[in-house]
Amino acid sequence: MAFLETRLSLKVQQKQVLTPGLVQMVSLLTLNKLELTEMIQQELVQNPVLEEGTEIVESPQELSEAELKQDASEPAATDAIDAVDANNANDAAEFDDSDRQYADVSDREVTVEHTVDTVPVEAEAPDDPYADLDLQSFDNYLNDGASRPRETEIFEKPSFENFLAKAQTLTDHLEWQLGLATMDEPVRNACHSIIGNLNEDGYLLAVDENGREVLINLEEIAESGEHQLEDVQKALEVVHRFDPPGVAARDLRECLMIQLTILEEDDTIPFEIVRDHLHKVQNKQFKEIAKAIGQSLEIVMEAVEIVKALDPRPGQKYNRTQPRLIEPDVFIVKSSGEYGVVTNEDEVPQLRLSPTYRHMLERDSINKDVKNYVKDCFKSAVQLLKNIEQRKHIIVKVCEAIIRRQTDFLDRGIDQLKPMMIKDVAEEVGVHPSTVSRAVANKFAHTPQGVFELRYFFSEAVNGPMGDGTSLLIVKRKVKKYIETEDPRSPLTDEKLALMLKDEGICVTRRSITKYREDLKIPSTHQRRVRS
Q1: CB within 8 A of 82, min separation 6: which ones?
Q2: Which of 2, 28, 159, 314 has the fewest CB atoms lying closer than 10 Å?
Q3: Is the pLDDT reported for residue 60 higher than 90?
Q4: What one-character DSSP code corresponds to residue 492?
Q5: Do the beta carbons of residue 410 and residue 447 sit within 8 Å?
Q6: Burial of 38 (0-12, 13-18, 19+ CB in 10 A)
């Protein structure tokens, strides 16, 4: 019988450990301009050594190369990040030569020297209390502005958020109408329950565990809200009369019928078509509808136009997605016939190291704990400045690689977009593909053709006359263009679309065309056909 016992054992293990500086570098690389600005503002609050400069601070790359030469014993941040990515992908344990070359000092980037060594505080000379901090490398960040008068009074301005209006949601709009209506209290409580169970389109539907929308029974609302079933039924009739018309419907047919009833069209041909032949309208079987209701095709078409004018998603009027605020992270501009990359640093705080805390370290009477705290703050601040410069350098390198591959797109437009993979750009830049993926995440570039997300330039290739030379985005655009110009009475089939692309030298299968059409949310041939 085996017994548990304590034993000592030795084993050799190799693993990658992320330092706080590398973790910060990874997180900084994924931030866009707005997120970076917010992150810097938080660091300004948390780290007293950091200050926001009153004028643009020259980058550390302007300093002498001898002062800023990186310690050979410490791997560059990009190398370590790429090594972690390679280790997670079960790549080789050793760094790739291209990754090491990428971290070498170049004309475009000079990495800031590691400024804090491991000399203990007790070993410091009394006449040099901050000997272990190489602050000489950061003279540009230490300008105390002695020649400029300092403001002695700070006026607190009201937050700009106080001037922003909050968009009214569907729930707010319905609750406002409910507050103006007169009814019994049990019915009012049931109305609250119904309004709370509406989806974004204004329907009385819920989402099951599989992500599908399912009908909510009135019995379930009564049971969950402890209402009487009769009160819930009365409450549903009340909400049906609210604006927007068609709200609280349980399916499309009921939604359209409610709108026609409010328009006093409940005893007309459009109401009959919606009630009995809505599926035929969706399939454009207008002749069958005319035959079923005993009316001419012209009358049916007029009624269908009335139905088309109704709103199938009444709740979207108040549940619109707020526009996304976008600021380009880089500008791709053409100068002297060549494209270049300019980083957008407007409104990004320019950081410098506080001269006040620097002078504090010179005092002999300073408390030891305070001195250690200030040194830790200096170390954290220097690491942040270095990571911000490294982030800028990586993004510029990636954008320059994009320019070299997408020059035709920048000159002539989207139809000249070429296929490009992240791994190809990573090999050209000399980093791991996941580093490129982080560098282009949620970032936008202002180009002569408009503002595009950096990920937009990366797309797969399909077979063309010269091999894999046509971007998948271009193929989808061609499919959409063919369908927009087709004859509605004889729409193009997926097989016909594949043949038309083949005539242009783009070889794709019918199943691929079907997939592209579904991605573009374009109905099938049968659903697009207009029957006369």
Answers
A1: 95, 96, 99, 431, 432, 435
A2: 2
A3: no
A4: P
A5: yes
A6: exposed
pLDDT in tens, 177-211: 999 988 999 999 999 999 998 988 899 988 777 76
Q: Are 173 and 243 in contact (CB under 8 A)?
A: yes
- CA separation (Å) from 353 to 49, 100, 384? 6, 30, 11
d(C-alpha 444, C-alpha 163), whole Å: 28
Please name which of 244, 247, 228, 249 lies closest in space to residue 184, comparing C-alpha atoms.
228
Distance CA 233, CA 239 (A): 10
Contacts of the segment 82-86: beta carbons below 8 A, 24+ positions apart: 82/431, 82/432, 82/435, 83/16, 84/16, 84/18, 84/22, 85/432, 85/433, 85/434, 85/435, 86/432
Task: Give yes or no for residue 59 having a pLDDT over 80.
Answer: no
Distances (CA, A) of 441 to 33, 318, 451: 11, 30, 15
Q: Give me the residues paired with residue 133 across strands.
A: 116
**Which residues are CB-contacts of 168 (< 8 A; sequence separation ≥ 6)?**
318
| Segment 331-363, tens digit of pLDDT | 999 988 899 999 988 888 888 888 888 888 777
Per-residue pLDDT, averaged over 411-436, amounts to: 87
Residue type, 531: R
**Residue 78 one-letter amino acid:** T
| Amino acid, single-letter form, for residue 89 | A
Tell me the fold of 462-528: Arc Repressor Mutant, subunit A (1.10.10)
Strand partners, 334: 339
Does 5 score more than 90 pLDDT?
no
Residue position matching structure tokens 């009358």: 299
| Beta-bridge partner residues of 213 | 207
The span from the CA of 523 to the CA of 31, in Å, is: 38
Nearest to 201, CA basis, from 318, 321, 316: 316
